[in-house]
Design goal:
Elements (H helix, E strand, L loop, with lengths): L1 H6 L16 H7 L1 E2 L5 E2 L1 H4 L3 H15 L3 E7 L2 E4 L4 H7 L8 H14 L2 E8 L5 E6 L5 E6 L4 E7 L5 E5 L3 E5 L11 H4 L1 H20 L5 E4 L6 H15 L16 E4 L9 H15 L15 H31 L2 H4 L2 E5 L2 H4 L3 H13 L5 H7 L23 H17 L1
Antiparallel strand pairs: 1-2, 3-4, 3-13, 5-6, 5-10, 7-8, 8-9, 11-12
Helix pairs in contact: 4-6, 8-10
Length: 417
Amino acid sequence: MIFRNALAPKAEVTDTTDLKNPAPWFLRIFGHDSSSGETVTVNSALGIPTVYRCVNIKANAIAMLPFQVFKRTEKGREREKKHIVSYLLETRPNPFQGPFKFKHLIETHRNTWGNAYINIDWGWDGRPKALWLLNPAVTDPYVDVKTNTLWYLTTLPNGQFVKIGAGDIIHLTALSTDGIKGKPPIQVAREAIGSSQAAQKFKGKFYKQGVVNSGFLKIPGMLNKDAKDVVREEWEKANTGISNAQRVAILDAGLEFQSVSMPLKDAQFIEGMQFDKLEIATMFDVPPHMVGILDKATLNNIEQENLSFIQNTLSPNLVQYQEEFAYNLLSEKEQERLYLKFNLEFLLRADKKTQAEFYKTMLDVGAYSINEVRELEDRNAIEGGDIHRVDLNHVSIAIADEYQLSKAGSSKGGEEK
């Protein structure tokens, strides 16, 4: 009962609001206030270069990986290229998107809204014929506590409100606290993002004001309100803005300007922005060097961080893709012989020298055939290249004694001759 109550839809808000004087609850629908006073939304957050970079890095990394269908065989596995799911994942998920755009958009949704919803368009034969992404801004999972079933409520591009069953949706999430809906990373990182938004606005105003930030003009004697407004307006007109930067200000009538703001360097402005950048990168699980933080970067630790990015950031997400797509797109009987897998070879490739050493080792122990190596290098197969070969110095443990005795016998016979 407690679990059901936790998932039950909340009571509707009855307070009224308008666009001129929006109520706090209305603002919270479209964004989250931060301590800096900035309202953080998906669109405003993507205006921060570090956020945009982190989301794009993760989206590109997964989008360029081949998502393939395999079938289990007596000898291991082999690619299944004729299945409709293989066509959808590797050729065309829907008429408007190729595999790269499709996967890129999924990851963008998942890393901004915390959820990606893929609607399965089923054909007459009961097999999927297209995959469509729903807008996460207007889509929500809903548990019907009476029937204990999961539904997805969404608004289609034509404005139609629909209710879609869980069997027609592939739902990928970011970190979730209820197992159903993911938490938006941007909401979690809103303090660092809000601070960056405020810093960008401050920097923009600084350059807009030119050489003068803020301060006061000291004038001998007393001025009335109208005179003060005229002096302030004329001063700002003559001495602020990019066009007036580095110009010499002329003070007459005993005027004296006194600045009350600290320069950006003295306020450790740059250091503050670097700290926000590091926090955002940490929140998105992106290595610092990928967002331009190179203070402690070396060739060795960058290589290790890249490997850690694949193992600790991408791989868990890839497992979620593989599980959810297979469960929703393949029948129970098909899942007994088919499974989905990302090909990580592209990301794991090292420099040419290291790659050559790896291939040589795998060829020597018989793990790879020549044609398998050529396939990894996008080369055509050669005749006889499918045979697995081993170094003559390596023999089976089962015949090791026999092999050694035969070698000894051959040597002895040679001496007698």
